[in-house]
Amino acid sequence: MDIKHLQYFLEVARLNSFSRAAEELFITQPTISKMIKNLEEELGVVLFDRSRKQLALTDAGRIILEHAKLVDHAMKNLSTDLDNLFGLKKGHIRIGLPPIFDANDFLKIVGKFHEKYPGITFQLVEDGSKKIEEAVQNNLLDVGIVVLPTKLELFDYFSILEEDLKLILPDSHPLADREEVNLVELAQESFILFNKDFALNDRIILSCNTLGFQPVIISESSQQNFIKEMVSYELGIALLPESISHDLPENVKSIKVVNPTISWHLAIIWSKEQYLSYAAKEWLHFIKQELVAK
């Protein structure tokens, strides 16, 4: 039995389609159909019920699927271990980043790491903390930058940044000349928030609820620049991390929020359950050293 047979079988099972699996694997449909047929003949079982409109696994197919997943996982771990033997001459690291994160310092560290290990490639995925946690848990990302608190039963982590949120508002707003604003004074304002995939959304709403009001949310976005532009057109106010509250449109100001201040705490997480490649471990060690040295 060839490992490729199992990998093709996994792809067909995942997509419930020979044609879509063939497209994903960049092979022809007759090729993948023949591979699956060969596998069925070798095992002496039928893996897929082809009589229905929708392709479905047979009982035997479901059993084979679970074993095929284990074999595929073991082969991936073997590949990772072999990379280790090459002394980090090659490898790939998948990192989740929040779009609200000022990535300048982070990318400088990526550049230094690449200079030291030019054979290691990076995949950088922008998403909210909740989606990043989900992707790390499901082994779609190796590490991710998220807003604390995180799920300590699932992830290990170390802190990289803690800062307060600033009030972002048009310079024509009645509060624009203030040096600081009490959070409760925003009870009647229209809020522009990051969408619900972002932990910051929950943090802001909870802080407002604690003071006895539910913020009026007129819009949500996943892009910090779009939020800043909406504020510049006087559509509402926003609360953004201090590190991204400097590069604002000309008619937009940032002001300190007090009573209470709202802070966000960023950390790098990785799964306690998933295998972490040697390249990813070295990356975590490297970035921790760089942050300590700052």
TrEMBL record:
The keyword Transcription regulation applies. It holds the Pfam family LysR_substrate. InterPro entries: HTH-type_LysR_regulators (IPR050950), LysR_HTH_N (IPR000847), LysR_subst-bd (IPR005119), WH-like_DNA-bd_sf (IPR036388), WH_DNA-bd_sf (IPR036390). Coiled coil: none annotated. Residues 1-58 form the HTH lysR-type domain. Transmembrane segments: none annotated. SUPFAM superfamilies: Periplasmic binding protein-like II, Winged helix' DNA-binding domain. It comes from the Bacteria. Keywords: DNA-binding, Transcription, Transcription regulation. Belongs to the LysR transcriptional regulatory family. NCBIfam families: trans_act_CidR. PANTHER family: HTH-TYPE TRANSCRIPTIONAL REGULATOR YBHD (PTHR30419), NITROGEN ASSIMILATION TRANSCRIPTIONAL ACTIVATOR-RELATED (PTHR30419:SF8). This is HTH-type transcriptional regulator YwbI.
